[in-house]
Amino acid sequence: YSFCTLLGKTLKMTCAVLAAAVLGAMGKPNFIVFYADDMGYGDLGCYGHPMSDTPNIDQLCKEGTRFASMYTSSPVCSPSRAGLLTGRYQMRSGVYPGVFWPSSALGLPTNETTMAAALKTIGYNTGMVGKWHLGVGPNWEYIPTQHGFDRWMGIPYSHDMPDPEMCFYNPGTPGIPCWPGTPAEPMHTECPTETLNATFPTPARNALIDELLSEEYAAKALAGNPEASGGEVQLPLFNGTADNMAIIQQPANLTILDDLYTLAAVNFVREMSSKPEPFFLYYAFQHTHHPDYAGKQFFNTTQRGMFGDSIKALDWSLGEVLSALKESGEEDNTLVFFSADNGPSLARLQRGGNAGLLRCGKGTTWEGGQRVPGIIKWPGKVKADVLTREIASTMDLYATIMKIVGINLPTDRVYDSVDMSPYLFEEGDKNGIRDAFYYWDKAVSTDANLNAIRWNEWKVHFRTTGSHCPDDYFVPTCRANYSSGILETPLLFNLNHDAGEQVPLDYNDPTFKFIVSKIQELKTAHLASKGLFGPSQVRKNDAMDQPCCKPSCKDAKDPSKLPACCRT
Question: How far apart are CA 400 and CA 425, in angstroms?
């Protein structure tokens, strides 16, 4: 694997072709990874929210193992996605500080081996649907099809880059605002009138897509939105393969995005299930990142408001993909993983998510920022309807998948991924348990930004910061204006007793001397690990590098003209 990976693309393809024939006989499993955006620990029905309509995810919980302590590598988007796909903390691959923007000139380095790239070396068919947020590049050299995915339909970053003008299906009347404000937001008034669980696609749903793609509806959707705010190009929707990639909508129409994403994912599962090689699908939802959005079939259908409509749309789409998987006959041969990139965006108040009993949310290293839902299902392999309290990270999926398919991790770099297969698949075996986790600041730039460490049930905060919440938010530590900096006396919590981090223990109490000493040892060793900080890929920006559906728009080399020109 290391040999094939480190050499050129031609040899990579040769390795993959040679391996495919062998792989067919070996019966390797398929993998489907669902990744939600800004979903809180308390947002799902199976994680305790009484008003969320998430029947498909709740069923996934019943059929799989649910994690009580699943962590993302970062409390914000881009770095957590780098951690998931590479099995390494984001600083190692240079995805810091913060996130990529439409004008970002760089992206996830191509010498990083994603899950998809590794699986391709042994013959897997790979596909991605949804949000990438790991860079585009002036020549699209950082998009998913340059990182091991055979095909991709999706938006390259968050759908508030720039702020969209239309998020909800509402033709013929004044638009429902994408952001809280005036006019007043509608409240749930009636039960949905459409059946949402029919197998996709149906003639009725195809007719709906035709309607929403029509020029008449597009004109309504874009009325009053001649160009993006702040000099940014409109939101691009990519679709294609490495050899044939295009921006098919700019701006992307959020009111039909769920339909397009679902169709792409369902068709991938159906097509790949008929082939002899196994497949890997990475479906990264735009939901539930702000602003909330919903199409005709979901708008105003839940009692949880617009966020509830958004999460219901996500749940429906996931259910359609899993239904297609079952119909294909590949369900028992497929490992399904569900999680989220970080905690909820509490700054959006009622139109944001919920961290449950955890403190704060997205952007913080309190538990609510990085502790997220996590579910794994593999019929007959992973125990069903089980809650595991072991510590795990989304980064751990990398080593777990590599172990399942027999790929040895390269020794030329440090991996932060821990193989979960022993305790997932082998009764009573604890060798795969992670006993420590490191919480890095959302804007990490130096080793001084290691904010906290968890060891077993014990967590120490060396430094705390707020997030994006208003300055009058009712929890002061979550406010944008809150920052304690490096704490003179670190905060110590027992997360088994106090998951909400409400009652700090006495850090200087001799009772906790061994615990404090152990966590300090872990901190020293982690900061000394090889290659902890690679060159930053996030800091370089150029407005001319924004993705544009018409290359000729860049001929004038005038970024101020791009927003009006880059439109389908």
Answer: 11
The partner residues of 71 in beta bridges, in order of sequence, read 371, 393
- Quick check: 153 and 262 in contact, CB under 8 A? no
List the catalytic residues.
77, 133
Terminal alpha carbon distance of the chain? 42
Structure tokens at 241: 């393969």
Antiparallel, parallel or unpaired: β 65-71 and 30-36? unpaired
Nearest by Cα to 42 from 368, 315, 319, 390: 368
Amino acid at 94: G
Q: Phi/psi zone of residue 82: left (φ > 0), alpha (ψ -120 to 50 degrees), beta?
A: alpha
DSSP conformational letter for 144: G
* Mean pLDDT, 10 residues at a time, the chain of 568 residues: 39 47 61 96 90 92 95 95 97 93 93 96 96 94 96 94 79 61 43 37 45 46 42 91 93 91 95 95 95 86 87 95 96 97 87 89 93 96 92 96 93 93 73 86 91 96 86 83 82 96 95 96 95 92 92 90 91
29 sits in which H/E element: none
Q: Which amino acid makes up residue 162?
A: P
Per-residue CA distances from 235 to 168, 421, 537 (Å)? 16, 39, 22
Which runs of E-coded beta strand occur in 347-482? Answer: 371-372, 374-377, 386-393, 436-440, 450-455, 458-465
Give CA–CA dist 561/321, Å, rounded: 40
Q: Which residues contact 498 (CB under 8 A, 6 or more apart)?
A: none
d(CA 131, CA 307) in angstroms, rounded, equals: 18
Secondary structure class of 484 (helix, strand, coil): strand
Max CA pair span of the chain: 72
